[in-house]
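Hey all, sorry for the wall of text incoming. These are the two entities for the joint prediction.
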Amino acid sequence: MHVFQTLRGRTRARLRATPRDLVFEGLSAFTALSVVGLLVLITVILYLAAAESIRTYGFGFLSGSVWDSVSQRFGAAPFIYGMLVTSALALLLGVPVSLGIAIFLSELSPPWLRIPLTFIVELLAAVPSVVYGLWGIFVLGPAMRVYIEPGVQAVLGFLPPFQGHPIGSDVFTAGVILAIMIIPTISAVSREALLAVPDSQREAALSLGATRWETTRLGVLRYARAGIFGAAILGLGRAVGETMAVTMTIGNRAAFFGSLFEPGQTIASQIASRWLDAVPPLELGALIQLGLVLMLVSLFINLFARLMVGRFLRVGEGAE
Amino acid sequence: MATTEEMEKLQRARPGRGRLLIVVAVLVIAVALIAVAVYAGWLFPSGSPKAKTALNGAGATFPCPLITAWSSEFVNVTRAPTTPGPQVTVNYNCVGSGAGITQITSKTVDFAGTDAPLKSSERSAAPGLLHIPETIGAVTASYSVVELSTGIKLRGYTLAEIFRGTITQWNSPNISADNTGIPLPARAIQVVHRSDSSGTTFVFTSFLHLANPWWNVSLVGKAINWPVGIGAQGNAGVAGKIQTTPDAIGYVELAYTVQNNMKVAQIKNHDGQWTTPTLATTAAAAAALTSPPSPGGDWADVSILDQPGATSYPIATLTYLLVYKELNVLTTMDQTKAQALVDFLWWAVHGGQDLSEALTYPKLAAGLVTLDEGAIRSITFNGQTLHS
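and here's what came out:
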């Protein structure tokens, strides 16, 4: 009945389209299309600004391992590497914690705790990244150096990534900061995914004699895995592009690192620390080319996420 | 049809609330506007009304606190009814030397600040720019070793080896040779350097180049490919990183080490004396500068690194304001603004210098003030000099 009325209303509105309606339709279409236009414009402008660097280095830019402003040699490989390692570390540390939060909030939490806890977790997402960076410099960094990194080293020190002298402003610290920053995103989205699981799933599992853990694992997590995967990818998107907090904690060293306890650099943090005084055309162009690389990486992450979520959804439907 | 009735009901009901909302909004905006107007002095101007003009500058971050202090003081000076001319606001955007040079070259600012003098390519891109040294900077080697008090002795050669990564322990023979009787710990040195592009890095690496033959010109610049170390952003970032990392050493502008009460090394100067970085030793280095070029000349090779003189601190630098000799090349310039700019520059190298020491900048030596006076006198607008 209700749907029918709205539909009828819509048809009538189209039939009697007043100038006002036309303006409204035009404006909203314009705002929607302007996003597409903006993306194209940004890409074109970035490409033009990076033209000099692209001409000079071409694809060798991606594999170049030196960033030297004095001799004007620029390569992106250490930053791509740094970005991949920090983001992977952030996901590795952040996803299990986020899942724990999401499961507790949707499945286990007593109702009186649910709302304040949700609110606090989401508040973490509202903290500006520069504040995370400050906290990273003055609280987390020293704590990492004195307690956490030596502790990790005592257990895993036989592996090369955990060797060396912990300094507190290194790749590991940046990974931990990123993990903390993506937890609110991942936990909020996966909580939504878990809440969207119909209760019939839980009831079915329980009626078969499943324990709470088995219910959650078989009935809920499996059903919601597309949503959880999407949540993790959203988190990855944030980790890849995060700038301020990383540049304040990673130690800003434009070179490859063998250990997580060495300073490194990501694409975003390199742009942030160098753009201010970069000399046009070559160094500035190289920085902008870095920006293009970052845009492409983000694009691929999103495409990949779409594909994977789509695949999971189909599998999920089939299982149903 | 029920929907139409509802719509009518809504239309009847809404306006009342809507009107109230509009009235409240208008009231709030009006009150805010009046408050702003009173605060800004549009409604009740205090004293006699004075014309206003603004000067825009951009550039080096090193003199940023000083120029900001000048700008707020110069408003007071020019606001006074006894001062002829308009009230002058000076806006200085601390975006870095490189950005400052770019902006003055494209003529989007009235003056620029830079730590490194113009290279010949930059000079030919912006002909007619004058170098006006406005203050002096010193770069310290600052460290955080618990056992050590301030003033350990590091010669330039040793400093370069530390930043090269060949001296890695605090108790290495090179360091202990100059510091007999001081208990140097057997721990690793943590090197901290700037991650952004900076005049401070240019000065420091230029000094290392002078002091150690290994440190070649490919490692001299505003941002270099450091052999070792942690990078941090800005002087404040490096200072913070040194203070929070044990056994660290880094290079920081003098002002930051004084404000943060940091430990700084004594450096061996040209005369073989160990000198502590202070305002006095920095000023001494600037005073030792002999036969500077003319303000409109080529300053590219001017340096006050490693100057002779028993008290000259060896890692010092001049920092410059860049101004066009003929101001009509700036499209936004007019007679009033040109006069205001020249008055500001004159005041900055005279009265403004009294603000320096409180902000940990040395005062300009008399010789440099004379040089600046000549430069400011030579500035013209449409061929007319502005300061006699």
